[in-house]
Design a protein that fits this description.
The protein has six helices and five strands, in the order βαααβαβαβαβ. Strands 1-2-3-4-5 form a five-stranded parallel beta sheet, covered by helices on one side.
């Protein structure tokens, strides 16, 4: 019938893959408005891509990669909601409207941007990494995100 899980990414993932990590990180400090204009322009195309896959019932779960580029060490935590959460929320809402599941992927320093994931409202967050790789415990994540969002490993 189709795939169980599919990764179509998000607008930030599209932008990030067009440049080096260093150039992207620098641009968040020097050309932030240009980055936001690009994200605003690509967002409708990303939504259309998701809608096409959802209308054709291609997958049951959508794994959304790109949010991790909007947080430390690549971008200041203060930019997370504007670079990522506002777009991913629309993707998660669309996925949910088709009765499907969304999981947002994020590696690394999660603690400073947890409230952005609450704003995104995915069904799950992958991954909550403890130190030294990450900086957030499962208990800290649960306290901010509440009991409804699935928190996905690693189990230490």
């Amino acid at each position: 019938r189709g795939l169980y899980m599919l990764d179509l990414g998000d607008p930030l993932g599209v932008l990030y893959n067009l440049m080096s990590a260093t150039d992207f990180s620098m641009a968040t400090a020097t050309d932030y408005d240009i980055l936001l204009r690009f994200l605003d322009g690509i967002y409708p195309r990303v939504i259309d891509l998701y809608r096409t896959f959802l209308e054709n019932d291609i997958a049951d779960c959508y794994f959304i990669v790109g949010a991790e580029f909007a947080g430390p060490p690549l971008a200041a935590p203060a930019h997370f909601k504007e670079l990522s959460a506002r777009y991913v929320r629309g993707i998660c809402d669309l996925i949910r409207s088709y009765g499907k599941t969304s999981i947002v992927h994020y590696h690394g320093q999660l603690l400073e941007v947890l409230s952005g994931f609450r704003d995104m409202d995915p069904d799950g967050l992958h991954t909550v990494e403890l130190p030294p790789t990450g900086n957030c415990t499962l208990q800290q994540a649960r306290a901010v995100l509440g009991p409804e969002m699935a928190l996905i490993g690693p189990v230490q």
